[in-house]
Amino acid sequence: MSDSSDSSSRVTPETLTASGQQGAENTVLQATSLCKTVTSGERTLSILHNLSLNVVAGESVAILGKSGAGKSTLLGLLAGLDIPSDGELVMFGHALDRLDEDGRAGLRAGRVGFVFQNFQLLPTLSAVENVLLPLELSPRSGELKTAQYWLERVGLGERTSHLPKQLSGGEQQRVAIARAFVTDPELVFADEPTGNLDPETGAQVIDLLFSLNQEAGTTLILVTHDHALARRCSRCLRLENGYLSEFQPEAEASSEESA
Ligand SMILES: Nc1ncnc2c1ncn2[C@@H]1O[C@H](COP(=O)(O)OP(=O)(O)OP(=O)(O)O)[C@@H](O)[C@H]1O
Ligand SMILES: [Mg+2]
What is one term from the GO cellular component aspect held by the record (predicted)? Predict the structure, then answer.
């Protein structure tokens, strides 16, 4: 991946924040100088360079960029699912590099939801059993009712016993969204959450995401190619050539991000 020659809009290595202030008290996520380099055969590929980002509670952040720009890689790092080659990530005040895999999973349990680009539903479990999974890590009464409630909220109240292979791509995506929200998380990461949905269902899912953001103060970090979704976020970031920069989607509504 080559570096862009235009560095005027780059905001790295300074930390991107909503307020321009670093280390605000209600910071839920603080990424400092994150780098990701992978080795593929004999080639070393530098996907992300020195990315710094602060996210405060209740924010909604859209990350846009072309296919292959590294958006899913970045989301995985920010959620602590993947480990950076360099840099530091602090989530809820805990430095993730000081935690092992179990420690990171423990920190996320019940507090973080993740909607994967490829859903990652377990194929042998029904829709409702998939949604129940995160609750089983933190047993609570009325779990089945909670899982069913969330499937109803994403419009799948009639599909609870279907296996993933018996569901359409858009239905599987909505099961993945229900699974991400079932624990009432403080922080939700979603990788192209409307990518497989028709415009009407996509609009319903967007309404659901933002009503949760407003009602429960859930912090949202979304990867999307959808400018309608990006415009509703409090902040929009573009990932390009391994760097993040802030932009206003209104000004560029006609410039499609290529999928
Ligand atoms: N483990 C890996 N080994 C080698 N290359 C990788 C690895 N992980 C990611 N890449 C490469 O890094 C780049 C970024 O991948 P990523 O999936 O993050 O892109 P993306 O922006 O999410 O794309 P899309 O919009 O298509 O989902 C791609 O070129 C991909 O091939
Ligand atoms: Mg991706």
Answer: transmembrane transporter complex
